[in-house]
């Protein structure tokens, strides 16, 4: 998660930073309310630790503005030396979720962050389930995959979400290596069985409900990975390659290997200025380079 720590006292930010960074999260800092508002407008923030008493905009006022700015919910934890219950009430009414007292107890803060992680995971799972429900009408003949129309619909939804929530979005275009000689020598029925095995293998490589595998056309497939950066996408690519190696689906007419292999191109969505067609083209370009480099690889 990306955690924003807002406090006008550097020493207090340091205490929170030590806990958050120790849990492996990315940290950004703001020393006043306006800086926090500006950062939330520029970057995707997953959680805020908000001091209450600050010069200028206090934590409650800052939170109200942040909540008005976006329809995307993320947890805001207030941190304050004020122990009067009325401050707790005002904090919740302004849009906060948890109220912690100073001095911060690292173990308590760590527990709160773990709780927020679970909520974020549930949100992702709900998004994935909702998306799958929306795509039920676009199922391909290959079980568990969406068809080209479903792919177009999913791309539209995920690009909109990526722009709105400032989430990374990854696309992998995948082609079955040397599929024509497989089809020509084994027949169309065997070819269909091969494509079915390819589709099932790609689905096994996905770890989250929100990950979408689509039959793009013929022997070409597409994988949409919401909220996935370049490093995470490479991990998915390695998983795909290993699963196809383990599958060891015979392909004696391939010039690449004695089993079915795939080539792929990975692209990261460049943001609001990039169209869906341009996004796909960037992945297709790398797919072509993977083929030119000898196939059986994802670039």
Structure description:
- The chain is α/β, with parallel strands linked by helices and 299 residues long.
- It folds into two domains: 2-123, Response regulator (Rossmann fold, 3-Layer(aba) Sandwich); 135-292, 2-Layer Sandwich (Alpha-Beta Plaits), CATH 3.30.70.
- 50% of the residues lie in helices and 17% in strands.
- The chain has a five-stranded parallel sheet with strand order 2-1-3-4-5, sandwiched between helices.
- Helix 1 (10-22) links the parallel strand 1 and strand 2 (26-30).
- Helix 8 (188-204) packs across helix 9.
- The longest helix is centred in the middle third of the chain and has 29 residues, at 106-134.
- The mean pLDDT is 92.
Ordered list of secondary-structure elements with their pairings:
Elements: E1 2-6, H1 10-22, E2 26-30, H2 33-42, E3 47-51, H3 59-69, E4 76-80, H4 85-93, E5 98-101, H5 106-134, H6 148-165, E6 169-176, H7 179-186, H8 188-204, E7 212-217, E8 220-226, H9 230-247, E9 262-268, H10 276-292
Parallel strand pairs: 1-2, 1-3, 3-4, 4-5
Antiparallel strand pairs: 6-8, 6-9, 7-8
Helix pairs in contact: 1-5, 2-3, 7-8, 8-9
Strand content: 15-25%
Please summarize the sheet with the most strands: 5 strands, parallel
Strand arrangement, largest sheet?
A: 2-1-3-4-5
Q: Structural class of the helix and strand makeup?
A: alpha/beta
Kindly report the average pLDDT value: 92
Summarize the structure.
This protein has 299 residues and is an alpha/beta fold. The chain has ten helices and nine strands. It has two domains: 2-123, Rossmann fold (3-Layer(aba) Sandwich), CATH 3.40.50.2300; 135-292, Reverse transcriptase/Diguanylate cyclase domain (Alpha-Beta Plaits, 2-Layer Sandwich).
């Amino acid at each position: 998660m990306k955690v924003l720590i807002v406090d006008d006292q550097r020493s207090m930010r340091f205490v929170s930073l030590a806990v958050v960074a120790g849990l492996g999260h990315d940290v950004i800092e703001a020393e006043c309310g306006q800086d926090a508002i500006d950062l939330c407008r520029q970057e995707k923030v997953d959680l805020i630790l908000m001091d209450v008493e600050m010069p200028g905009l206090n934590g409650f006022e800052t939170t109200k503005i942040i909540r008005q700015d976006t329809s995307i919910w993320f947890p805001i934890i207030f941190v304050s030396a004020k122990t009067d219950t009325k401050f707790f009430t005002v904090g919740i009414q302004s849009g906060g979720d948890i109220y912690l007292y100073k001095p911060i107890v690292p173990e308590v803060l760590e527990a709160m962050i773990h709780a927020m992680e679970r909520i974020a995971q549930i949100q992702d799972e709900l998004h994935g389930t909702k998306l799958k429900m929306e795509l039920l009408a676009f199922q391909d003949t290959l079980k568990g995959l969406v068809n080209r129309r479903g792919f177009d619909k999913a791309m539209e939804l995920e690009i909109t979400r990526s722009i709105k929530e400032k989430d990374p979005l990854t696309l992998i275009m995948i082609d079955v290596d040397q599929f024509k000689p497989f089809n020509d020598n084994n027949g169309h029925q065997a070819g269909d069985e091969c494509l079915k095995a390819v589709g099932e293998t790609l689905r096994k490589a996905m770890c989250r409900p929100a990950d979408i595998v689509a039959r793009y056309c013929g022997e070409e497939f597409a994988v949409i990975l919401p909220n996935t950066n370049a490093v995470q996408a490479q991990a998915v690519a390695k998983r795909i390659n290993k699963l196809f190696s383990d599958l060891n689906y015979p392909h004696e007419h391939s010039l690449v290997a004695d089993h079915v292999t795939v080539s792929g191109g990975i692209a990261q969505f460049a943001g609001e200025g990039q169209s869906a067609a341009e996004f796909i083209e960037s992945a297709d370009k790398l797919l072509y380079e993977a083929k030119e480099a000898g196939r059986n690889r994802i670039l």
